[in-house]
Specification:
Strand content: 15-25%
Number of strands: 5
Shape: elongated
Number of domains: 2
Order of helices and strands: HEHEHEHEEHH
Number of helices: 6
Helix content: 55-70%
CATH topology of the largest domain: Alpha-Beta Plaits
CATH superfamily of the largest domain: Ribosomal protein L10, N-terminal RNA-binding domain
Largest sheet: 5 strands, antiparallel
Structural class: alpha+beta
Distance between the termini: 96 Å
Low-confidence stretches: none
Radius of gyration: 23 Å
Mean pLDDT: 88
Length: 164
């Protein structure tokens, strides 16, 4: 039987995992085997540039934390798993997917995006979405186009009225 001190230490880690899941919009579990120390430092740097980060926890502690939150990820917690989390729905997934292109050893397992479980196919969909800034740019471009078309229409109408 584990001592009271060890159980408290484990509970602190479980509470930390639960806090990361609760405070983050996106969480992704991935297999980091085959990445060098330099690769992991590059990955961490790219994640931090996008308001994300990752940590490596024991699978048993992650399983207990997810079970406490009624999230069933026991099947995905096989083998070494890293835990990436971020404040943007797609930024964390996009960074990991981009990094995977140059480092095929990295394997995305499962994600939790806005509280919903996302399998590998769903993560691939999220990775193909434009970033938040890209979507806002598209929206602004569409709105500018409408304003431009309206101004052209009004100008033509005013010219038509002047001729009559």
């Amino acid at each position: 039987m584990a001592s009271e001190k060890i159980l408290k230490q484990k509970q602190v880690v479980i509470d930390e995992i639960k806090a990361h899941v609760h405070d983050s919009v996106s969480v992704v579990l991935f297999d980091y085997r085959g990445l060098t120390d330099y690769d992991t430092k590059q990955l961490r740097r790219k994640l931090r540039e996008n308001n994300s980060d990752y940590k490596v926890y024991k699978n048993t502690l992650m399983a207990r934390a997810f079970n406490d939150m009624n999230i069933d990820l026991n099947a995905e917690l096989k083998g070494p798993s890293a835990f990436a989390y971020g404040m943007d729905q797609v930024a964390t997934v996009k960074v990991l997917t981009e990094f995977k292109k140059d480092h095929p050893a990295l394997e995305l397992k499962v994600g939790i995006i806005d509280g919903e479980k996302a399998d590998q196919a769903k993560l691939a969909e999220y990775a193909s979405l434009p970033s938040r800034e890209g979507l806002l740019t598209m929206l602004a471009g569409g709105m500018i186009g409408l304003a431009r078309d309206l101004s052209i229409c009004l100008d033509l109408y005013a010219k038509q009225k002047e001729e009559n």
